[in-house]
Amino acid sequence: MKCAAVLLLVCVGFVVSQPQPQAVKEQPKDQKATQQKEAPQTAQAPKPVSEPSKEQKDQKKDEKKDVKKEQPQAKDSAANFQAECLAQSKAKQDLVAKAKMGEFKEDAALKNHMYCMAQKIGFMDNKGEILKEKLKEKSKALIGDQAAASKLVDACAQKRKDGPDTAFHTIKCFYEKSTPKHVVIV
């Protein structure tokens, strides 16, 4: 995994995301046909890419459906949690997006959003207490190293004046101390 990869703690499990390869720009069919006619045919010339058959397209659709079936509902739950917490906290989406990239603004609505997400994910309770053992389990599953996960939780999971403030500073600390890969819990 590359150093710039961003890791997301989501719902019951963890989702690891890596930078996506950039898509190759496809030429219009008319341009392809013109280029194929103009290009001299040699033994070394690459064969033009043909359109996938109907059978291949159907197979790809089936594969996509199978992948969706295999994935746990964590992504759906996380999206639902995100929507619920945004509505409940009245946090601005741009502040949430910036927090995911490491820019944490001291904002009451953003803190409330993070507290809501921490409760939904399951590492904080409704009294503002951090459930350290659950956070260690989730961190170990993500990091793959019990000692490193424990060290991160011990350093970051510190009680503050209230639940939203505790969630905000815990999440910010996780992002900052989990380098070179950043753990994002927003």
From TrEMBL:
Keyword Membrane: no
InterPro entries, A to Z: PBP/GOBP (IPR006170), PBP_GOBP_sf (IPR036728)
GO molecular function: odorant binding
SMART domains per record: PhBP
Signal sequence extent: 1-17
Pfam families reported in the protein's UniProt record: PBP_GOBP
Composition-biased stretches (Polar residues): 33-44
Organism superkingdom: Eukaryota
Keyword entries, A-Z: Glycoprotein, Secreted, Signal
Region of interest (Disordered), ranges: 21-78
Residue ranges, compositional bias (Basic and acidic residues): 52-73
Subcellular location: Secreted
GO terms for biological process, alphabetical: sensory perception of smell
One cellular-component annotation, GO: extracellular space
Task performed by this protein: May be a carrier protein for lipids.
Family listed: Belongs to the PBP/GOBP family.
Listed name of the protein: Uncharacterized protein
Species the sequence originates in: Acanthoscelides obtectus
Lineage: Eukaryota, Metazoa, Ecdysozoa, Arthropoda, Hexapoda
